[in-house]
């Protein structure tokens, strides 16, 4: 996955702008992030693409970050029919009803406190780990939490970009 000859990366680099923009929107709902990634094509390596993603994520202003977060469903409630959110939130799939109820309550309290969805890179995390992170991060200041959100968004974007440039056509 480190050369431009990687079929997925080569395919991404040669997509029409409109198709590439649509694919990038599936990775991150921020239009500013998508434009930044699109403008950097062609990428010679997946690492160059990931670096561009990290740079674009770090540059998002508050409105762009809110737009990015709006593309993510609350933990424990993946978008119906969306295989990406279901796959990423797999750790909640077997959660007890008690844990699901607790997550709903914690998510609502978090959203009331911070004004946005709780964002965490859920890939590989158990429901209990996500709950514990939500409890811990709910005590953060808004400034601290924005930093956590940006970090988690960067992780999610990298995972999704990896799938984009490594999946078969």
List its salient traits:
169 residues; mainly alpha; globular
Question: Can you put this structure into words, describing what you see?
Answer:
- Helices cover 68% and strands 0% of the residues.
- It is built from ten helices and no strands.
- The two termini are 15 Å apart.
- The mean pLDDT is 89.
First CA to last CA: what distance? 15 Å
Low-confidence stretches: none
Order of helices and strands: HHHHHHHHHH
Total strand count, please? 0
Total helical segments: 10
Average pLDDT, to the nearest integer? 89
What fraction of the residues are assigned to beta strands by DSSP? under 5%
| Class computed from helices, strands and strand pairing | mainly alpha
Helicity range: 55-70%
| Rg over alpha carbons | 16 Å
Shape: globular
Please give the largest β-sheet: none
Write the topology of this structure:
Blueprint (H helix, E strand, L loop, with lengths): L6 H8 L2 H11 L3 H9 L6 H14 L2 H9 L12 H6 L1 H4 L3 H18 L12 H11 L4 H25 L3
What is this entry, summarized?
Helix content is 68%, strand content 0%. The protein is mainly α.
């Amino acid at each position: 996955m480190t050369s431009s000859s990687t079929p997925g990366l080569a395919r991404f680099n040669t997509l029409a702008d409109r198709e590439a923009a649509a694919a990038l929107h599936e990775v991150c709902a921020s239009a500013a992030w998508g434009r930044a990634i699109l403008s950097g094509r062609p990428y010679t390596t997946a690492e160059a693409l990931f670096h561009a993603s990290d740079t674009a994520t770090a540059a998002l202003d508050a409105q762009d970050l809110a737009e990015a977060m709006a593309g993510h469903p609350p933990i424990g409630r993946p978008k119906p029919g969306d295989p990406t959110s279901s796959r990423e939130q797999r750790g909640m799939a077997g959660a007890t009803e008690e844990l699901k109820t607790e997550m709903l309550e914690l998510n609502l309290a978090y959203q009331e406190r911070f004004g946005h969805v709780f964002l965490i890179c859920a890939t590989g995390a158990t429901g209990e780990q996500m709950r514990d992170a939500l409890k811990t991060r709910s005590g953060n200041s808004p400034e601290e939490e924005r930093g956590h959100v940006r970090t988690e968004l960067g992780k999610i974007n990298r995972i999704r970009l990896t799938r984009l440039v490594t999946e078969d056509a």
